From TrEMBL:
Lineage, broadest ranks: Bacteria, Pseudomonadati, Pseudomonadota, Gammaproteobacteria, Cellvibrionales
Protein name (record): EF-P lysine aminoacylase GenX
Coiled coil in keyword set: no
Encoding gene per record: genX
Keyword ATP-binding part of the UniProt annotation: yes
Complex and partners: Homodimer.
Amino acid sequence: MTSSDWRPSATLDAVQQRAELYRGLREFFYQRQVTEVDVPSLSRAAVSDPHIDSINAQVCGEALYLQTSPEFFMKRLLAAGCGDIYSLNKAFRNGEAGRRHNPEFTMLEWYRRGWDDQRLMDEVAELIGACVELSSVQRLSYREVFQRELGLDPHIASVGELQHVARQLCDIQWDDDDRDVWLDVLMTHVIEPGLGDGLVLVYDFPASQAALARLGVDAQGQQVARRFEAYVGGVELANGYWELCDGQEQAQRLQSDLRKRQALDLPQYPVDQHLIEALTAGLPDCAGVALGVDRLLMLTTGINDIRQLLAFPFERV
């Protein structure tokens, strides 16, 4: 018997639909005078985020890493004087392969100089709306979605309160004293699935989840992270920041991430000193967002398994 695994998983029609989506995305940015840039997939540094694992590669006798996002390279371009830019290319993350994930995937990332997170949310809604017919568009703060769905203020609720609600609503037996762990459980397992079919933009995350975003103060006087996430049908599509421009603060956050990785017995990766130097030299005030193109294609085609939209998913490479 001859194996058919050499064949693509995606139909030829799906291959064409992907090409049409790419053409539409490039036209969207061309009309707005945002320049496409080409950055490396390999780097001598890797992401420090404890929730993301990089993929190693041995190249010319050196240990390099496949990039989980073009962000660091793009910020170096911004600091060097580029205007508004975008990248439509592959990204790589070591982890799950299945219906919604593949270790190699397509990411659209773009940066707007002089914009904040609120203005960038408008453009994210425009782009997604140009690709998918949306039944509604909502813009809600992180506090609002928690209060609406759980009756909790996530910024002031205690670890015990969050843990109690999570154990009531989810099948969880383990223990943890990290507030962000429980906030993430409630967000991903309880709130996200109930966000509805339309586009929901959630903003003003807890300050402890700022990552590469700057901090601000909301209308209630609470310190928050100026970042947002975009969901359609309860599926996360995009993650955006009003970017942190302070090199010293960013260096401290990266070191804090590495300490968390060490505490969790996760691999330690080299910090990208070029990024710190670029921010120190002067990253312009800007907002940026990364969007999962394969998930967007799932919405445009109505296909709910990413493997049916990839010519050769993980199982067939």
